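Researcher: Please predict.
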Amino acid sequence: MSMVRLAELIDVKVLQKIQDGFSAYTGMAALTTDETGAAITTGSGFSYFCQNLIRRTGVGGKRCEECAVQGAKRTMENEETIVYSCHTGLVDFSAPIVIEGRIIGSFTGGQVRVEDISEDDMRKNAAELGIDPETYIAELKKLPVFPIEKVKSAAKFLQSIAETLSGMAYQSYLAVQESHRTEERARFQSEYFSSVNVFMQAQLGELISYADASREKGEASELQASLKEIYEKGTGILSSVDSMTSYLNLVGGNAHLLEEIYTMDQLAKQLENETAMYRDEETSFTMRIAENVPQYLYGDPSRIFHLISVFLRAAFERAQMGEVVMEVTGEPFSYATYVSFRIADNGIPLTDAEVEDIRRCLSNNDIFRLEGSDMEREFALDGLLLHQLSGTATVEHENDENVICIRIPQLAWKKKA
């Protein structure tokens, strides 16, 4: 692979916006670096201690760069984000941005404490860096202390973003190497990621507002409502990252089915829990699983969950104060079983034009040539997922109901006694 640099593949302004969003959401510092550990963005949420004391010394700045590089390498080797202590004793985590097995940069977060740091260690480090020890200690003690569970959760979120950035960088790399066809893909990706980024920024802004408001809530019911809103916004952000990653894997030909044995009851419970977090209390939800659905199935429940979740959310958006019903049935054929998910709502009727638009999006296997709204592109992404699962979909408005039926072949699994 020819020499490429992260800043040449992804606009630094885009990296900065995503990084700022991560910092605002987690309350932790964040930075994007190149393959040497040198910053290519402006630090988000940086403390005075790190920005004005440590990094401004020649030795301290060099050690910070080395920590970012080593953290990214360890994450790549272990295939999960590693939480580690930097040279000052603060907790950091770093995930690599990779193209064809080579690290071209890293996304780093942290600059927090999870426990007290020895004063002797602080004085020793201050002396090595040429910093006044009293100032060093005073500024370090101002940094927040986070539970290790929250740090690990933020690290996992950061890894998802880094994987998405790796995909973005790789697609840009291919765009440089390929023909006019790839140039069309690059333009589409720019629009797609910009729209998702705008959504993420809006969700982050609302999430922060709800978090601030929740501090002032006195009644338990009001606090619970605020926490529900916060969960919804956070879930929306993670869903956006997941959609981007799925999109990149699918169009890059890197997606593989993760097949396993599962039960429809398990999948139904996941869907029930998911919808409970966003559906209105006045909108009823009924789920029925027919007896002809095999008890044990073999397939990719994660992708099926993602696919069905999108259609359920759309149904609930239409059926405010109405009713949503999902019926799951099985139909044996040859050596497998067609599992059908029929999702119906009595909400705002789909027009004939909207029905045709959804059908077109679901059946269009060339997502790059698809023009339309964010919702149409989301349905197009679901169409690619459905195609990968060898499934089919029908969309109708019949008997005052909007009906979408998803049909996916799965193997009926006979569990050994």
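Model: The CA atoms of residues 123 and 213 lie 40 Å apart.
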